[in-house]
Amino acid sequence: LNQAGNNYQSPYDQSRLSNLPSIKVDQVLSSKLRLSVYLQRTNTSTPRTATGADNFPDNITASNISANSGRTARINLDETITPRLLLHYTVAWNDSDFFLQSPTYPFNAQSQLGLKGQTAARTFPIINTNGLNAQNLAITQPANTAEGGLSTIGGSFDQHFFERRPFIGASASYVLGSHSLKLGGEIRQQKFPNYNWSFSAGQYFTVINGANSTVPLSTCTTQPTLNAQTISNGFAGFGFASFLLGCISSATINAPIAAMTENYESALYVQDSWKVTRRLTMDYGLRWDYGTYQREQYGRYASFSATVPNPSASGYPGGQIFEATCNCRFAHNYPYALGPRLGAAYQINTKTVVNGGFGIVYGANSVQTGSTTNTASTNTPAFGQTVGLLQNGIPSNVTVQWPNFSPSAGQPAGAVVAPPTLLDPNAGRPMRLLQWNFTVQREITQNIVVKAAYVGNRGVWEEATTTPTSGVPLSDVNALNPATLRSLGFNDFTSAAQSALLTTPISNLSPVQKQQLSAMGVNIQPYANFPNNQTVHQALLPFPQYTGLLPATGAPLGKNWYDAFQITLTKRFSRGLVVNANYTYAKTLALISTPDPFNRNLGKNLSPFDLPHQFRLTAQYEVPRINSTRPVLRNKVIAYALSGWGTGWSLSYQSAPLVGLPTSAGTVPISNFLGYGPGPAQLIPGMNPWSVDWYDNKGVHHTDPLDINCHCFDPTKTQVLNPAAWTNVPNGQFGANESSLRWFRGIRIPQENANFSRDFRVKERYSLNIRVEFTNIFNRLQLPTSTAVPGGINLGNFATAPTKFTSGPNAGLYSSGFGTIVSPLTGTVTGQRAGTLVARFTF
């Protein structure tokens, strides 16, 4: 079964089947009642998902079967009570079912393999010989031939997720003189049932120590002479041989989960459109929104508490609490979401209209919730020891249950682990937007209208990012304050000696270093069972039992700013042609993360969605019916064949995404002291970030700055960024420039779509429409962009040389590295031209 050596080839089916039937019915029940019904269902199934796909037989595969289905039902009823009073009712339902299951289902590990300890008899147990913990992650790592070449086997996922969204709404419209009044309300519920049996048959590891590993994992093939030694290359043992001998270095087991989170969104509103004079119309209203934060229906999900003692950390504060047992609520719902709106339109003359408006709008509540723990694991064995034999199943001292309401649920005693979820107390507060606009509309000719507008938004209480691509979260309870370090005598953040004091594992401290720390008043043993393989920096954190930062999920601390000038030109229907052109010049700023959690406002930066220039053009044309006296065109058959053809175009051109800035890697970065910072590398004044050493497609060498959108170079052979243009942040400091450079943008992605159609009328009540729709009709190459690879260009440490393929048909071409384009050789190019043929029969 050595897949890495390519001596076992077995094809597998990765096809995808989808069907999307729908029906819509409009029925006039009476002169006063009209009913509209819409039903839709979607189904998609895949015998092998891309996540974890392999070519092992079904009885041991780590691949997954996936199936998704969804239903939408909507019923609208309009009732005319009087000529002035109209009632509207809406009842709707939307749901989705997500299904991931191993082909090994059903499988009873205890009866068929004799492995004890399973918590559900559903899938083949997971066996991992590669040295990577696949717990709760996609099993996608390749086989390692140095360890025997066996990929992870066993059923990796067994989950059913559901979404349920009922909705009900009603409104009443009443005309009274020059007033058009409307009163209404709505309520929607969101429910997310979750059934999870993943890893319930157990997960067994025969991992070994690899190069530069300091983790004392071991199996029965470990070399005893390497005790406490770090090897520079190779592996200390043979994982596949350990598997064949039945030795396991660690094991985990999960308990099944059956839980459901839910929240509600509701609103009441009243509005009026008042025609004050023939030229002036006023619109005003008030809307009240009320939503709840998302919580588990029985309070079985956990949130971090700064005051609850943590048993796994000898009672040190920082345990978990549960709504089911704490008689509390993790967050508060916000009851004051009142949004007034005001608008006015005034006709200056027959060709000119001005209008403007202002309003306060509230968004939906965050869907963040607490976390749950249903995992138990063996402790790390001593060097040269194992935790048991595979034939005995999960060791008897490993027990698991769900729900587990212990403050240290999922945290082994004395272990330093990733922090639990901290649901912010204000997670029930929705984002608030202040929106305003001012517009002038002018009729230039009978068929041409121009509209110019200024639009502005200011947003507050936006949900802050908990895992930002740059910087740190706006709210964090485990960040080390610089003032704390200075109070202990760490006053020089450029000192390599003081940096070493903080970053050295406690067990490796010399007697002199320990004495120095003691004289400074540094407590390297914050609680009794704090492990000495942790660093001094870890011991100084507010909650040293947790690694890294501990952000508040759902914290409404973010802000955003948007200003735009928009101009629109509309060419009304004339000789079968309708054209609309729109240009927007805008600027978008955001505060959703920060380089320094103790100085949040430093995080105000250009939004990743900032696009200074956007131009869109849409056009529709239909060949009019031909009535000609010319010899050929007056023929009825020819005139019919040429008439009625239509085409539509949608063209969009806009600024490229921001590239971002490379990372900084100083010798003594401030992150050695604080655990965050120093920010991105700095652009040297006067230097150009684009390459000044490149070759065009004709082989001509250039020393002028590269134009990333010139289409004149090979992206697989060109390092498009200039590594000499950057410098690291000075030791012990934050970067002087933490913001993106607005002009530093990557690859533009034009969007050009078109359709061609023809209507054929069979009889007065029957017609056939044939339409062909194309996306990316000119088949432009679209290199990918994402938040991970902004602008389509790889960043990272600018001092690291790019890498190239060393063998195969792509030898010599760039594979990755600083300043290279995300390689189209890796299959990441998307958006190729696609066409759809649609036929619609109407009767």
Write structural notes for this entry.
7% of the residues lie in helices and 38% in strands. The model is unreliable at 1-6, 131-143 and 211-216 (pLDDT under 50). Strand 33 and strand 34 (701-702) form a beta hairpin. The chain is mainly β and 843 residues long. It has a 22-stranded antiparallel sheet that branches. The longest helix is centred in the middle third of the chain and has 10 residues, at 511-520.
Q: What's the layout of helices and strands?
A:
Elements (H helix, E strand, L loop, with lengths): L16 E3 L2 E7 L4 E14 L18 E18 L2 E17 L7 H5 L12 E3 L29 E19 L2 E18 L6 E3 L3 E2 L24 E2 L2 H7 L1 E2 L1 E5 L2 E19 L4 E12 L3 E2 L5 E9 L5 E7 H4 L10 E13 L2 E11 L12 E3 L10 E2 L32 E2 L8 E14 L2 E15 L19 H6 L8 H8 L7 H10 L15 H5 L11 E2 L4 E17 L2 E15 L13 E2 L6 E10 L13 H7 L2 E10 L16 H4 L7 E2 L10 E2 L5 E2 L23 E2 L23 E13 L2 E10 L27 E2 L9 E3 L17 E9 L1
Parallel strand pairs: 6-9, 23-26
Antiparallel strand pairs: 1-3, 2-3, 3-4, 4-5, 5-7, 7-8, 8-14, 9-13, 10-11, 12-22, 13-21, 14-15, 14-16, 15-19, 17-18, 19-20, 20-24, 24-25, 25-27, 27-28, 28-29, 28-30, 30-31, 31-36, 32-35, 33-34, 36-37, 37-40, 38-39
